[in-house]
Amino acid sequence: MNADQIEADTVSSQTDETPIRQVDRRDWAALAASLDASGHALLPGVLSPAQCEALARGYDDEALYRSRVVMARHGFGRGEYRYFRYPLPSPLHELREAFYPHLARIAQGWNEKLGQDLEYPPTLQGFLDRCHAAGQTRPTPLLLRYRAGDYNCLHQDLYGEHVFPLQLAILLSEPGRDFEGGEFVLTEQRPRMQSRVEVVPLRQGDAVVFAVNQRPVRGARGYYRVTMRHGVSRLRAGERHTLGVIFHDAT
Length: 251
Fold this sequence. Notes:
Elements: H1 3-12, H2 19-24, H3 28-38, E1 40-43, H4 49-57, E2 65-70, E3 77-78, E4 80-84, H5 92-113, H6 124-133, E5 142-147, E6 151-155, E7 166-171, E8 179-181, E9 184-189, E10 196-200, E11 207-211, E12 214-219, E13 222-232, E14 235-245
Antiparallel strand pairs: 1-11, 2-4, 3-6, 4-5, 5-14, 6-13, 7-11, 7-14, 8-14, 9-10, 9-13, 12-13
Helix pairs in contact: 1-4
């Protein structure tokens, strides 16, 4: 399966709604409030089952990817993932471009709360131009595959000087049918406090937007930084695929 075949499969599953229209129709005020409150927001039904299955079937197509990572070789956990190469297949390309402007406005608000003098361009290409000028030219969207016994250690997806502070994970498999276990996990480390853990319930096609590194939290003396990490608990059975949508490119 190549990128054109994935695009044909996903387009045929859509009616009059493109991924861009679906993204623009979300309640972004409510999503921003959820991100401010907990560092993540759940978006049900971002991809259809047909789109999810088309992307998952493409995992073994070498032509779609620039590299493959076996987690156990690097101490990242168990399982593996592949980084897509440019050009990205549909609907990944469309989703990345459609989500970016909404998330950039939220990220800009976070910077202001933390007193950071950093502005994000209004379009994804503008931000990628900034990454590429700094030597961050390798695409970071990825497809992850877990099988029984696999898991992903808590981590952050930081790939260079320029880091967009929000990212997206979309579950391509259906819990209870395709796999057991394998929950998406977020941890939050507040200063001088124990880490707080949250499990985010996802169904096939659902997305979670979450903080890549740090997020602002209001305290008695203003806003302070809270460090976030994410991972996946051990898979008990079956096979699980996840699409990771990261907006900054890598060195």
